[in-house]
Amino acid sequence: MFGDRTVAYGAVARRTQDDWTGVALRALAEGGVAAVAVEPLAARLGATKGSAYWHFPNREALLRATLERWERKRTEAVIEIVESVSNPLEKLRLLFGRVLENVEDSAVELALLAAKDDPVVAPVLRRVTDRRIGYLEDLFGELGFTVEQARQRSVLAYSVYLGQAQLLSSAPDLVKARRALVEETLTVMTHRA
């Protein structure tokens, strides 16, 4: 069965590394870093623990691969999509729209922030934060803001994103009009005093 990224040999389906990191991301969103544990993930996949250890020498390696997948999917792939647009204001609109919409992705973000001191999570979280803020600085710079203004606005915009993630998790009824929120955020972030 190639469509679901498993390879069947007789009646036994072999799970891929991608299968494992995918289920680990879902578990991370639902239960935090502690939920990325081989035995419960194996049960969710209908696989054996040995399958996990075929791809990853230990739980830490599985967590690291899961975080790398999250980084690619939620940072690098989003930046790639945004870069397909030429106008910097439209890039910001697209970026804000992409990142302020997904509840599951917000849950992963919050789980990682809650585990910010974990030795596997900490360097990835820092690298992603630096990359995202740096990218936002570039966009605000393209809009003509000074280096200092671009830095301040990028930190503020990232703070809005993290606050939105928290609200999506704890009080989703407060953020029903997400498109209006994106537009208001853009208006505030791009306003020149």
| Number of continuous helical runs | 9
Total strands: the figure is 2
Structural domain count: 1
Q: Helices and strands: which structural class? A: mainly alpha
What's the pLDDT, averaged over the residues? 88
Remind me, CATH topology? Tetracycline Repressor, domain 2
What is the CA-atom radius of gyration, in angstroms?
A: 19 Å
| CATH homologous group name | Tetracycline Repressor, domain 2
Helix content: over 70%
CATH arch. level architecture = Orthogonal Bundle
CATH classification, class level: Mainly Alpha
How much strand content do the residues show? under 5%
Quaternary organization: single chain
Note the overall shape: elongated
The ordered string of helix (H) and strand (E) elements is: EEHHHHHHHHH
- Give unreliable regions as ranges: 1-12
